[in-house]
Amino acid sequence: MGEPALDKPVLEMRSITKTFPGVKALSDVTLSVKQGEIHAICGENGAGKSTLMKVLSGVYPHGSYDGEIYFQGELCEFKDIRASESRGIVIIHQELALVPYLSIAENIFLGNEHATRGVISWNETLRHAKQLLKRVGLPDRPTTRVADIGVGKQQLVEIAKALSKEVKLLILDEPTAALNDEDSRKLLDLILEFKAAGISCIIISHKLNEITRVADSITILRDGGTIETLSVSDGEVSEDRIIRGMVGRDLENRFPDREEYTGPDSGEIAFAVEDWTVHHPIDQHRKIVDGVSINVRRGEIVGIAGLMGAGRTELAMSVFGRSYGRDISGTVHKDGKEIRTRTVPEAIGHGIAYVTEDRKRYGLNLIDNINRNISLTALPKVARRGVINEHEETRVAESFRKTMNIKAPTVFEGVGKLSGGNQQKVVLSKWIFAGPDVLILDEPTRGIDVGAKFEIYTVINQLAAEGKAVVFISSELPELLGMCDRIYTMSAGRLTGEIPREDATQELLMRHMTMDKTSNGVGAGS
Amino acid sequence: MSSPVKTDIQDAPGASPKDGPGGWAPILLQAMRSNLRQYGMIVALGLIIVLFAIWTNGRTVTPLNLTNVITQNGYVLILAIGMMIVIIAGHIDLSVGSLAAFVGALAGVLIITHHWSWPLACVVALLIGALAGAWQGFWIAYIGVPSFIVTLAGMLVFRGATEILLKGQSLAPFPDGFIKISSGFLPAVGPHTNYHNLTLLLGLALLAWTLFQEWRGRRQQIAYDLDVLPFGLFVMKCVAITAAVIAFTLILASYQGFPIVLLILAALLIVFGFAMRNTVIGRHVYALGGNQSAAKLSGVKDKRVVFLIFVNMGVLAALAGLVTAAHLTSATPGAGTNYELEAISAAFIGGASSSGGVGTVLGAIIGGLVLGVLNNGMSILSVGSDWQQVIKGLVLLAAVGFDIYNKRKVGS
Whole-structure pTM over 0.80, yes or no? Predict the structure, then answer.
């Protein structure tokens, strides 16, 4: 490792092929990462990114795949994760693997404790932890419980943990998916610092703007094969260029065209929330949503932009059957009349649907099949006097499978086996089946690939064209700009702006989204 | 016992048949795989029955003994049905044994000490069971105390209450009518035929009804343009059902006929099997167990469902208590000991998942029968109760272990 020649590859994966029963997940994939570079891997969901990383880190042991892995010039045959970690290859998964009720220091050295004959030396542990935290720029004390710090900081703890293992190649799987822009920026800066210190890095991300910012090379996977490796030093790589590689076609238009709703009642306000205030469920003096008023017209798509902690999800969930928070005040109106939405069944009864941000935790019963997930919200529609007509249920589910293009052989396929995009289509189907007039969509395209996104946009447009009122919560500004007629911005629980489509730009939105509490909120609907 | 066969084959919708020569085996395999635990247990149950029959030179399959297996295990099967539903919803109930004892004691006090008519006492006992279930359900659903804790408390409370009620002593004897709940049979009517006439009739009716259901289900599936079993396979299935029903009917009919307990069980199996498979509330139970947050956000009234599940469990525990009291012909403070553990074992052997969301009522019955047949067969082979416990424990571990191992193999 004396003087690493910059062009020498630190990692080479040669013609990696990995098959699962009936599926070829990777076929003849080649990946070459240079010493000290940041290498991005892009691809649609199911393209094989995670599988490739699992092969590299030894989750799939040597022998369960074909092909060769060379790390620092040596042929490696990892039999488990420990083997790859001992060589300095550390992977940080999308779902953080921290134990919430242990301290930062305990988490950093979990499985790797500073101990002699099984007895932990706490002084050494804390000293070393402090040192590592300094390196990742985390000011908290190492004795703080992980449950008490935010996701952004937790991500840093994971990185500190990786550093404690003398990492030479750091693999980050969707590191910024759960972070707000501020934390994401910090994280990316940190990775750039590591690069300067000679640590190579592989980063998997759906956020193309981040990739174009930090990556030196970009390898694109599609359908389990390597499509190409783009080198940033050869010239600017644009997001469109990457997308073209990922989907194999030019997406000149990432957002589908939309038909306007021209029903007799078009333009009427279908749904309005007034002066809505929600307190934190535990810390009851903290206002999570503070005096927010919004409205949506028939056939209109209204966006809500905001950073993490702005209170968007909390607003939506508290309106939808008081599923979040306490001491809630304010009124909800539908078609001009005040309605009660104190419980979820009440809200559904008034034709409101909430498509949750976290589909695995709140949206789906992962151990059940497509069929039963779709029918759950509106079982009475396929039942008579409490008895379900299973044939009718299956017919309905089948029709959704076809119209929504859910990729599964039958509706009896387990939802847990589907890809993120297809799971999201099931969630949408389930709420469309409920027949709502108002749809609140919370991050409906999070973590799903470009092709599936387009399909979901198309569905949303169609719903609006049918005269439904759509509230669209998203963290991706281009998506809001591409889809919405109007965009509200929130910051720290307050409404800070209402911007019509014509005036909206990313910069303007971001300015409103980062307004602090002291600046004046802009009243809505007035 | 014909509805079992019907229920689980329909339960295996993974069977999307490709018509054509040689297409049957894969369809069967796929259907088996998608419901492996239950098919596995049916096969295991059959195997155990055959093995014991061989080891005991057929003593276990005499009409007398088969009738005994049913009357002796009635209480476990009743409890297992309720327990299965509780476990599907992601909860547990440790109090059922104590509650059964308490209800038995109450029946004893009402009937023997206070000379109530026994049917009235039974109705009151069931209501008390419902009330006890409601009490526990209230704490679990509306206050949010974990079911493990609430029912652990209930286990102590009801056991203590039983002893208070009986002052530590047994009460006997129950009147004949009451005892018939456990040891009675349908009355013999009609001409003398060497067989029990009413049982034959009942068997025939059951057969006709099952075959009609099969045929109707198939018609509907075709009408809805869904995949159906190839016709040959369908006929085979019907023949198998017919054979099973006839064999079972003849065995029962050649002894004293249809036991009352079996009648109760069959009714429970049909009602609860239907409720869990085909009704909105049954579906809500599965949804809650599978993902409580998602179910709640889909409009499932989670608290009410959980409350009702425990009320139901209370009623079934009370029923099991009555059957036990009738079986013992007395109300004793020690009745129902370890019943909760047997019911929980039955549910898990029969395919429940410890994380909830999975299981069928039929599975609970099969799990209960596996345990019952093991008990009975080992007793006839004069295996001591010490070894019986060891073996039952290992069977429970093996059944669940095999299932988890199998799932992992499919999953990776």
Answer: no
